[in-house]
Write a structure and sequence with these properties.
Number of strands: 5
Strand order of the largest sheet: 2-1-3-4-5
Shape: elongated
Distance between the termini: 34 Å
Largest sheet: 5 strands, parallel
Order of helices and strands: EHEEHEHEHHHHHHHHHHHHHHH
Structural class: alpha/beta
Strand content: 5-15%
Length: about 350
């Protein structure tokens, strides 16, 4: 998995722009006037060069020649004279151009073009099932949930967690995106922990259904382009109890019902809806919560860009005392799939056995 490379003639502006990209790929910011080029294999290149002097064009051409691989998309950011910039972009072989204000959309479209067809197909199948069988307002049965679970498990097996997440992130419905993403994280995490196949299936199924109560939350709150007010937050928080109520008596096991109701509980008692503390929060719920929190961090939200893999994992670590620290460490190989800089640490971590690898639910 390659990085996103930003080439800039103003390193401070480039760093500011890099924080806005909102991509699960890490971003390397390169000063156009550095004479030594780094050893990189970027998956997408963006140039942010405001002063397009003759020297800048020569340097940019040299950098692209050395670092742009075959079929790597290249976005040329336009500053000032649009006609002149467009002409220069064509000479440099840019895939497309965009102004700074349109940068995020252009980056997302270019990233989308590199998503494998199989990942797109599997994501579309899962989304269609999700819409028509889980979030349609019709009763949800264990048999229906099992079909959705197998769709996610097959998709992750066929495409890998990174491509699956990128495909799912193209969805415009945040709830569908989140549930499918968290289910995939749960499937991979439970496999990393060495859980029995039946327990892996149960955790993935719980993750798929964990936010089903959001069907009762007004759409204007779910999709609000900004932070929620206190009263809106209170309404949003009812989704856990309402999802639990939807599934009680439908044939689901106690572990799944607990995960749906308690996936926002924290082991220090600061969560909701019941303020559970310590071992009142089961292993099953603890696993679910880590996947839920990480999934939310790497997603785009109306009020913030998604975090890179390493940054999101750091947030998990900083939640020690609220999340299970042992399970957070065990999650590191999953987070590494979204950030190459974590691969070595994840490999080392994988050599350390997790005390809960034999846990059954």
């Amino acid at each position: 998995m390659g990085e996103l490379l930003l080439i800039t003639d103003d390193i401070h502006r480039g760093r500011r722009l890099s924080r806005e990209f909102g991509t699960c790929r890490p971003c390397h910011v390169l000063d156009l006037y550095d004479d030594v080029l780094p050893a990189l294999d970027p998956a997408l290149i963006v140039s942010d060069v405001e002063a397009l002097t003759s020297e800048a064009i020569v340097r940019l051409r040299r950098t692209l020649a050395q670092l742009r691989g075959e079929d790597v998309p290249y976005l040329f950011l336009v500053h000032g004279n649009t006609a002149r910039s467009e002409a220069q972009a064509r000479v440099l072989g840019a895939t497309t151009t965009a102004g700074v204000q349109q940068m995020l959309g252009a980056v997302e479209r270019l990233q989308g073009t590199s998503i494998p067809v199989l990942a797109r197909t599997r994501a579309a199948e899962a989304r269609q099932f999700f819409q028509h069988a889980l979030f349609s307002g019709q009763p949800i049965t264990p048999a229906v949930a099992d079909v959705g679970t197998e769709l996610v498990v097959r998709a992750v097996s066929d495409t890998g967690i990174h491509d699956w997440v990128r495909a799912v992130q193209q969805f415009d419905d945040a709830t569908h995106q989140h549930c499918l993403l968290v289910a995939a994280l749960a499937a991979v995490f439970s496999g990393t922990l060495g859980l029995r196949p039946a327990d892996r299936h149960r955790l993935t199924r719980a993750a798929l259904l964990h936010d089903v109560g959001k069907i009762h939350v007004p759409i204007e709150i779910l999709n609000k382009p900004g932070r929620l007010t206190h009263s809106e937050t209170a309404i949003m928080r009812t989704h856990a109890e309402r999802g639990h109520a939807m599934l009680v008596g439908a044939g689901f096991d106690d572990g799944l019902l607990a995960a749906v109701r308690s996936h926002h509980e924290m082991i220090d008692g600061s969560g909701y809806p019941d303020g559970l503390r310590g071992w009142e929060v089961s292993d099953f719920v603890r696993l679910m919560t880590i996947c839920d929190v990480y999934g939310a961090l790497i997603e785009r939200r109306p009020y913030r860009a998604p975090m890179h893999g390493a940054k999101a994992y750091t947030v998990l670590e900083e939640m020690a005392g609220r999340l299970d620290a042992v399970l957070v460490r065990a999650f590191q190989p999953i987070a590494a799939a979204f950030d190459p800089t974590m691969l070595k640490a994840a490999h080392d971590q994988a050599l350390i056995s997790c005390p809960r690898q034999t846990t059954t639910f």
